[in-house]
Amino acid sequence: MADIENITKYIIEDAQKEAAELLKAAEEQCKEIVEQNKKDIEKLKDSMKKAAELEGKKRAEYILSSYTVEERKARLKAKQEVISDAFDKAMETLQHLSKEQYLQFIEETLSDIDLSGDEELLLSINDKEKLGEDFEEKINSFLKSQGKKNLTVEYSPEEFTGYRLRGNNIEINYTLQALINNLRVDMETEIAEILFS
Q1: I want to staple 117 with a disulfide (CB 3.0 to 4.6 A). Which of 17, 149, 160, 177 is the partner?
Q2: Are residues 105 and 84 in the same domain?
C-alpha cells in the first residue's frame, strides 16, 4: 500500500508542479498580453493625437483661408464703394453745371460729330428753362460758325443731363450718365490705382 501512497503522492506532487508551471506560464503570458495591450494603447493614443493635431491644423488653415477671403471681399467692397462715391460726386457736380458750362459742353461735343443736317438734338424738358428759349438758334449759329449743318432741338419729358442726338436711324447718347458709365468702365482700374496706392 505504501507503493500506492508513494505513487499517489508522486502524481499529486507532479500535478502540483505542473499546475504551478502552467500557472506561472499563464501569468507570464498574461503579463505579455497586458504589456502588448499597453503598447497598443500608447500607439493608438499617439495615432489619435497626431490625427487630432493634423485635423486641427487643417481646420485652422481652413478658418484662416476663409477669413482671408472674407477680408479681401470686404476690402474690395470698400474700394468699390469709394470709387462709386467718387463717380457719384462727379456726376452730381456735372449735373449742376452753370448755363455757360453746359452750353460749352454741348457745343464742344457737337463740334466733334459729323452732322448731316437731319439730326434731332433731344434735351430734357428741364434744360429748356436752363438754356433759354433761343437755345436752338444759338446752337445752330454755333454749328454754322463751325461749318456744320443745322439740327432740330426737341425736349423730352425724361429727366437727364446732357443730350441724345438722333438721326439717320441712329441715336448717340451724350447724357452725362452714359458718359460717366463709359468713363467708369475705361478708368476704374486707373482710379483704383490712384486712390489705393
Answers
A1: 149
A2: no
Domain count, the chain: 2
Whole-number Å distance between alpha carbons of 7 and 26: 28
- pLDDT over 80 (residue 106): yes
Residues 7 and 83 in one domain: yes
Cα 53 to Cα 61: distance, rounded to the nearest angstrom: 12
User: What's the rounded Cα separation, in Å, for the pair 191 and 79?
Assistant: 10
Q: Are residues 134 and 75 in the same domain?
A: no
Q: What is the pLDDT of residues 51-104, one digit of tens each?
A: 778 887 888 787 777 778 788 888 878 878 887 888 788 788 877 888 899 899
Q: Give the span between the Cα atoms of 155 and 157, in whole angstroms.
A: 7
Give yes or no for a contact between 133 and 123, defined as CB atoms under 8 angstroms apart. no
Range of the domain at 54: 1-96
Residues 32, 102, single domain; the answer is no
| C-alpha distances out from residue 127 to 93, 118, 134, 151, 158, Å | 16, 22, 12, 17, 11
What band does 179 get if pLDDT is binned at 50, 70 and 90? confident
Query: Residue with C-alpha cell 444759338?
Result: 138
Amino acid letter at 162?
A: G
